[in-house]
Design goal:
CATH architecture: 4-Layer Sandwich
Number of helices: 4
Largest sheet: 9 strands, mixed
Oligomer: single chain
Number of strands: 9
Strand order of the largest sheet: 1-2-3-4-5-6-9-7-8
Radius of gyration: 15 Å
Order of helices and strands: EEEEHEHHEHEEE
Distance between the termini: 37 Å
CATH class: Alpha Beta
C-alpha cells in the first residue's frame, strides 16, 4: 500500500466503496478518504487538504467526476478528517457538505469559532443559527462560501 493507492472495500456486503491512502504527513498507510459510488455519490472525510490531488484521482479512478459527487460527509472537524472540505466543496459543484451540528461553524468559517452552529438542519430542512446571527453558508474568504453545509442533529 502506497500513498495515492485506491482500494475497494470488500468487507461483508459492502459494494461500491473505495478508499484512498492519503499518505498523511508523507506516511504511507496513514489516513484514508472514502469514495462511495452509489445513487448519491459521496466522499467520506476529506483528509488534511494536503495531497488533495490524491482524492481527486481516487474519485476519477472509480469512474466518477467531481461533478458527480453529491455528498461530502465529514465525520468530525479534526483537521485530518475535515481539512480538505473547502477544496472539495469548491471543486464539486453539485455536492453539499454534511457535518455534525457542533462542527458546522468551523466549516463555515474556521477563523471564527465564537459563532454558534450556522447551517441548515438535515433533520428538519430549516435554517438554524445561534445568538440571533444570520445563517450563513460560508464567508466570502472561505472556500465553502457558495456551498450548503448541512448540520446533522441527533
Amino acid at each position: 500500500m502506497a500513498a495515492g493507492d485506491v482500494f475497494e472495500a470488500t468487507t461483508g456486503s459492502c459494494e461500491d466503496l473505495h478508499y484512498v491512502d492519503t499518505g498523511m504527513y508523507d506516511s504511507p498507510e496513514y489516513g484514508s478518504v472514502y469514495v462511495l459510488d452509489a445513487e448519491r455519490p459521496a466522499v467520506i472525510d476529506t483528509g488534511l487538504g494536503t495531497n488533495y490531488e490524491r482524492i481527486v484521482d481516487a474519485i476519477e479512478s472509480v469512474g466518477l467526476s467531481l461533478a458527480d459527487i453529491e455528498v461530502i460527509a465529514v465525520t468530525h472537524v479534526h483537521l485530518d478528517h475535515a481539512g480538505g472540505a473547502g477544496f472539495l466543496a469548491r471543486d464539486c459543484p453539485n455536492a453539499d457538505v454534511y457535518v455534525h451540528e457542533i462542527g458546522a461553524r468551523h466549516l463555515v468559517d474556521p477563523r471564527d469559532s465564537s459563532r454558534g452552529p450556522s447551517a441548515r438542519s438535515a433533520t428538519s430542512g430549516s435554517t438554524t443559527s445561534n445568538r440571533g446571527r444570520s445563517p450563513r453558508t460560508g464567508s466570502s474568504n472561505s472556500p465553502t462560501a457558495t456551498r450548503s453545509i448541512w448540520a446533522i442533529t441527533n
